[in-house]
Amino acid sequence: MERRGALGPDPSPEGGAERPIAPRSQPGGWIALLAVPNVLALNIWPWTQATLRDAGSIDGLIASGTPASFAWGLLFALIVLALVRRAAIFVWLTLPLMIVMPVEAWYVLNYGTPTNPHLIGVLVETNPTEFAEFVSGRLQATLIAAAAMGVVATAAARWIASRRWTWRHRSRAWLLALSIGTVAASASAALLEQATLPGDVRQMNSPQFGFLPMQLESFESVFPWGLPLRVVDYYGQRRSIERGMRLLASERIGATIDAARAPRNVVLVIGETGRGDRFGLNGYARETTPRLKQIDGLVSFSDAISSTAASRTSIPFILTRVRPGTNVFHALTTEKSVVSAFSEAGYRTWWISNQMTVSQWDNGISIYAEEAHVRRYLNMAGFGSRSDHDEVLLPELERALQDPAGNRFIVLHTLREPFQLPQPLPGFVRPLPAVAGRERADHDLRHGQAGRARQRVRQLDPLHRPLPRRSHPPS
Question: What residue numbers bound the domain in which 422 lies?
Fold first, then answer.
């Protein structure tokens, strides 16, 4: 009589004795290895982005979404195994994902967050030379680990396939029915949440602007099953950016400049989250900008005010002549930016950014970045995770200044972290307190936002330190 279990043997094709039932721990071990990045991303480890709300709080940990990603990862693995039934099909199907697993784990350990569409954008924007430098530097050991994982995983997959394990138990049907009900309930809840959002927010987050439907957003961070969603998300957002570029393709500003008076180098620094009333050179009691004060001929507009308090709605008015108050979506397709103006005047232009290539907050700004001849994105993580500090912009600025081009216009876009600065900044011993989500913004504004702004100014200050002496033409 055939023995039955959750995993049962296939009859021998020769009609001989059946293979013994294999321990369930083997397919379970394969699934557990696939779940390693999701375990590392839980907000309980020192390398992750644990916020005040998450630290020491079960409710905060659940609200962070990392336990849900871990649970979804396990559930999806079981669903796929239930759909294909045979463990051999499952392991060969997921073998490429197993080989990628060490790279995802390395990324989580270094940046405290799963990979995302922005990372795909950074790799796409990177030229082969820079990519080779990155691989030989940060990723070399990780790629060796991935290659070793490929050898070991292939051998393990061949062994599992040889056992002919098949899921025959009625628990397979129970799991499929339960998973269909769970996915349907989650999709209904997401649709209901989307329906309650204000109209302009729904418009901004809709697939029309390149974003995944809200029903899928929560699955994007789940490894490995969210990897295809990240690729789809990136290319969808790129199409949105390209659509905006096409609308501006025929626009010209008509900028000219007197060649005899044209400065050789023009550098525009977009300094995120720096408050003018916390700059020492503007009269603030504590000295927060000592290096800026050392620059001869520096002019500070101490009474300047941003048109809005958000980057994606203020930068279009900073970089163009569009009047503040204009609908931001209209502004993005009305006029090209100052980058194109310098390009028309004969300058070679750079956009060097520590921001993200694609995101809900950056796609509009990326339209202006696309106007530059050279684009460099240096932030490997994102504005809400353990990214590099803004001083990573300086080596790239040096390379731009050494370019043999004639006149140069260079934009340096620093990183925004208005409500979440969990890392210690250069020169500060203790990390800054962080808040999680907009519901804590009012608390932050009342309790210490000014202090964070002062420290943010100190973080920006290295951008104004004197560059190493080189044979640059006068700016």
Answer: 261-464
Number of domains in the chain: 2
Where among 147, 178, 197 does a domain terminate?
197
269 and 128 together in one domain: no
Cα-trace Rg, the chain: 26
The verdict on residue 233 lying in a domain is no
Where does residue 85 fall: left (phi above 0), alpha (psi -120 to 50 degrees), or beta otherwise?
Answer: left
Give strand ranges (E) for 195-271. Answer: 265-270
The percent of residues in the chain predicted with pLDDT above 90, rounded, is 23
pLDDT in tens, 341-369: 999 999 999 999 988 888 767 778 888 99
Buried b (16+ CB within 10 A) or exposed e, 407-426: bbbbbbbbbbbbbbbbbebe
Residue (of 254, 85, 266, 275) closest to 175 by Cα position:
85
Task: Out of 197, 224, 253, pick the residue that ends a domain.
Answer: 197
Would you place residue 467 in the very low, low, confident or very high pLDDT band (cuts 50, 70, 90)? Answer: very low
Could you give the strand order of the β-sheet that contains 348-353, starting from the edge strand earlier in sequence?
A: 265-270, 408-413, 348-353, 374-377
pLDDT of 136 reads 66
Residues 191 and 265 in one domain: no
Residue 237 lies in a domain: no
Q: How far apart are the first and last CA of the chain?
A: 88
With H, G, I as helix, E, B as strand and everything else as coil, classify residue 29: helix
Instruction: Give 111-126 pLDDT, tens digit per residue.
Output: 888 888 888 888 887 7
Q: Does some domain include residue 314? A: yes
Two tokens, residue 69: 């990603």
Most confident of 142-156, 186-200, 202-216: 142-156
Residue 475 lies in a domain: no
Q: What is the C-alpha to C-alpha distance for residues 78 and 91, in angstroms, rounded to an integer?
A: 12
Looking up residue 343, the CATH number of its domain turns out to be 3.40.720.10
Q: Same domain, yes or no, for 292 and 165?
A: no
Q: Which residues of 108-144 are buried (b: 16+ CB within 10 A; e: fewer)?
A: bbbbbbbbbbbbbbbeeebeeeeeeeeeeeebeebee
Half-sphere exposure (Cβ direction) of 294: Cα atoms closer than 13 Å: 10
Burial class (CB in 10 A: 0-12, 13-18, 19+), 362: buried
Query: For position 268, what pLDDT does the model report?
Result: 93
pLDDT for 313-323, tens place per residue?
Answer: 888 888 988 88
Instruction: Answer yes or no: do 172 and 273 share one domain.
Output: no
Which stretches of 282-389 are DSSP H helices? 290-293, 311-319, 328-331, 338-344, 363-369
Note whether 190 and 282 are same-domain residues.
Answer: no
